[in-house]
Amino acid sequence: MTDPSPASLADRVRDGDVRFHEIEEYADADTAAAARRRIVAEATDTDVDVLGEYAFDAADAHGSNIENMIGAVQMPMGVAGPVAIDGGALSGERYLPLATTEGALVASINRGCSVVTDAGGATARVTKSGMTRAPVFRVADVAEAEALVEWVRNSEATLREAAESTTSHGELLDVTPYVVGNNVFLRFRYDTKDAMGMNMATIATREACDRIESETGASLVALSGNLCSDKKPAAVNAVEGRGRSVTADVKVPREIVEERLHTTPEAITEINTRKNLVGSAKAGSLGFNAHVANAVAAMFLATGQDEAQVVEGANAITTAETTADGDLYASVSIASLEVGTVGGGTTLPTQAAGLDILGVRGGGDPAGSNGDALAEAIAVCALAGELSLLAALGSRHLSSAHADLGR
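That's the 3-hydroxy-3-methylglutaryl coenzyme A reductase sequence above. Prediction below.
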């Protein structure tokens, strides 16, 4: 082909000479995206030229991050902070990158960050780590289910050898069996270092499943049996954790609460109990918090995380209490925060810039430390957001802030 222009490529697709999803075989990724935009614009009678205004080469995204690319959706990014963090993997004052279209969100988190820093900073720690994949096997009956469970418990070294043969980074930590009638679920848990690790865990588990089928009478039904549980609200993740379980806390002196947040430790404590704890329990919620998903989602988008896993990242409990000396203690514990600093969307230039702002891009030394650092930053961000929103409710400023900033 001598003229791989967007117009000529679009004509060839319409004529049936080239398939829509195979345009990259005839032109570079940016030209292919332009050709698809032309086809979609004509088919839908829509002006989509703005989608062609993006800051990275289409080749950086097409294939590894997106298929049938026609452009990019751009979101405004702001920063909150700096906020002082005393983490197990991240320390010092850091700006937090936040991508969102919700007015007032960055301002609210920024206020929380300022209060946290003036209070001496937040402490954050990753308390558990492990990415899971849980295949489901079919067996004849409960006796065969018991036999499979026994085999798994006696063969962890065999399963570890099989799983780890597929990766130079991942480590199989444990395998937990669950029996439901003639169904056996095996919840594999891996240390995936600085990668979020879902693909790593899936490939490794597939190899382990082949070994199970070859040495037992069990039959693999699905590589994912939903006991993982990925991209769905699930109690198992709230209890056992998935990805990284991380907690951040802060003690805010009473005078800072009163002067900066315009409320009292007692008011914030009561609101947290009645709203975040009792209200969430009555609603049957898996997240006992005010709006942790806001912070998680904004930082996920800014740093190239899998946005669908916000549903697990919002699986968090916020606590607040008035201390014996009259100050405010507050914490956020996120049970299943699935993040990584290598692979996936972290390789895109704009998202890599978000990681660079935090100083956590790429593999850490030791392995896993950058992933832990990102998790700690997100937890502190969520804590700042919770403090600010609870204070806004306590001072009855929530509606006025949204009226001023969110419209």
